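Lab meeting prep.
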Amino acid sequence: MITSESVEQTCSQVGEYSDEMMAEEFDRFFRAQPAICDFVVELTHQSGQRVQELALFLSYMVVKTLEIGGPAGIGAVTRETIEAAYGESESWIDHMSRAEGVELQSALAASFNKDTEPCLLQYVVSELNQPLDDGAELDDNEKGEVFFVLKTVISSL
C-alpha cells in the first residue's frame, strides 16, 4: 500500500523537474502504460483540454508514486484490466449516487477505508480541489469526471 510519504516524495521529485525532464517523463509514461493513456484520452476527449491534461497528469503521478513507493516492477496495465476496473468504478459511482446525506458520508468513508490505495485517492481529491496552473478551477462535473477516471486508473494498477 502506498503511504502519504510516498505521495509527498513523488510530488517533491516531480516538482523539481525541468520542462524538458517532464516531457521525457511523459514520453516514458506513454510508452510504459499505453492502455492507461489511451483510456484517459478516450474518456476525456469531449471534456476539453484542461480536463484531459489534468487526468493524464494525475495518472502519471499515480504511476510514478507506485514506481517510487510500491512493489518493484509495476507492469503495463492491459486494456482488459482497465475495462474491468472501469466496470467496478461504474458500480461504485452508481452505489454512491443512490446514497444521500449522512448515508453518503458513511458510504464514502467506508469505501475509502476498504480501498486498496486510500492515500492515492486522497491525493487525487486534494489536487482536484486546487486551482489549475492558470488559476481556473474545475466545476463539480469536471472534478467528478477526473475523479472517476483516476479511481479507475488506481483500481487497474
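Slide two material, second protein:
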Amino acid sequence: MSAEPALVRAVARSARTILFSSVFLFFAVSAFGQDSLAFRRAEHLRRGINLSEWFAQVYDSKGYTKEPFETWNTIQDIQLIKAMGFDHVRLSINPAPMFRHNQADRIPADYLASLDAAVQMILGEHLAVILDMHPDSDFKDKLARDDAFVEQFSDFWRAFARHYSAQDPNLVFFEILNEPEVRDPYRWYGIQARLASAIREGTPNHTIIAAGARWSDDDDLVFIAPIRDPNVIYNFHFYEPHIFTHQGATWGASFWHYLHDLPYPSNPDNVKAAEALEPDAIFKLAVARYGSDHWDKSRIDTEIGQAAAWAKHWNVPLTCNEFGVYRAYASPQDRAAWISDVRTALERYGVGWAMWDYSGGFAVVVKKDGQALPDELTIKALGLKVPPVVPGDAGKP
C-alpha cells in the first residue's frame, strides 16, 4: 500500500474530526444556551402544585372511571390554585389503565376524553400543565428489566404525545417518567433517551422533562449527562431528610411510622424525645444522626446547590417538581419552616418548583365536607397569598 492513499485517508479523518467537533460544539452551545427554547419554556414553571390521586394513585373504590375523574377536582379547585398564585400544575397520570398489551399505541378514547377535560379545565385558567407519567412500581419494574416493555411504552408515549401535539407547547409539558426505579443508571439513560425520542416523534415542538435513574433524586440527576435533545428541562425531587419529611408514614422505611413531632431544624438535643420513640437501636441511631447532622436552612441550601451546579455545568434548565412534608405527624410550624427553607433555596438558585401536593397527605389545602380549605401556614411558607375569598363549593362532589 502506497503512502499517498494513507496520507489522503489521514487528512480525510482529520477533516471529519474537525467537522464533528464543530458540529458538536455548535450543538452544545445552541442546544443548551440560556436563551434556548427550553429555558424560555421553563419560565412557565416557576411556582407549581401537584394534582395527585386524580389520574394516578387513585384510592377511590370506583377506581379509574369517569365519575371520580369528574368529581375529585373541579373547576373551583383549579380556580383556587390560580387564586393562591400558582402558575402551573403537575398532573399525575397512571398509564397502566390506558395500556393495552402489544397495542400500547391504541389508547382508549373514553379515558383520553376524561383526561382531555381535565387538561382543558387547567389551561382554561391560564395555568401551564405537566403531563407526568406516574405509574405504580410494578410498571416501572417492567421498564427496568424488559426491553420489549420499553418498546411498548415508547409506542404509548408516541401516540400520547401526538394526541396532545396541537396543544400550546408553551403551556403543556411531557414528563417522561415519575421517579424511575432503575438500579443501573446507564440502563436508565438509554431508556430515557428512547422514550424521549418517541415523544419527539409524536410532537416535535413540545418540551420534555427528564430525571435521574432512581426516584428522581438529586444525587441520581447529577450522575447523568443531558440527553441529545435541546428542548428538555431536567427535574429532581427533594425530600431530604426523609426521616423528617416522611415521619409517621406507613410506606418507605419501616421505622418512619414510629416517629412524630420530630423537630426541624435539628440538633443533638431537640431530637431526644423522638429518639426515645424508636424501639430498635439502629433506628434510634438514625434519629440521633438526624440531630447531629444539623439539618437547617444552610444544609438544605448546600444540598440543592449541588443540583443547581450540575445544571449550570451543562447549561440546562432545572426544576424541582416534588418537595413537601407529610402532614399527619409533623409539627405544623416545623413543617412550614422546612417548606420555606426549601422554596427559598430553590428560588435563590433560579430553580422552578412544584410542591407535593394539592389535597393529599402533604397538602396545601384540606378538603372538609366537600370544601377546600387553604392552609395559611403552608401558603405563606411557599411565598404565596391566601385567597381573600375561598370558593364555597371547591372540591364538592
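Talking points for slide two:
The mean pLDDT is 90.
Residues 85 and 384 are 6 Å apart (CA to CA).
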